[in-house]
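Re: the pair you flagged

First of the two:
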Amino acid sequence: MLVGGDTELRLEVRTEFNGAEAEARCRALAGDGTMESLSLGTPVWTTAKEVDLTRGASCIRVSVTRGGQPDVVGASAVARALVRTVIAR
């Protein structure tokens, strides 16, 4: 967790046996009523509070709060940066 001012960034990483299991884990963690997308080139699930995405055999949950309120736009931006950083390696 990173905290600065009234903003908090939290990353939760769960590593599975392979990409298919990571995708299943992310889908289950995201739960019902989530919006699934491939817009970042990897499966991404967006809820009202966080973003879950797969990278290889990992499921990564990104959440951002500002002033104690969920910031899903901020979480989406962090998820986008994570995908670009991993691809750039």
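Second of the two:
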Amino acid sequence: MRSDAEKKHPDDLTYIQEQDKYEGYIIEAAVSRSRSEQGKWMGHFRATKEDAATLYGSVANLQDTDGLARDKAVDIAKAKIDETTAGQE
């Protein structure tokens, strides 16, 4: 049986806020070590905006460094925001 420490999920991550807003959204990103591939990292994001649903997700492609995983998470968050806001102008 897994211990509580092994049951962690993205809500237990420490998110770091990006300095600038993107299309009115505040983007926060976090990283975690891969459990399946030693030395690899997974990025996670959440994007919040007043009066809008929170967008969140995890990057499926593992990265070689925590910095690359974080950057990829921010890039994907921006793409999701673009999808969400397309046609709302």
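The domain at 4-85 is CATH 3.30.160 (Double Stranded RNA Binding Domain).

-B.
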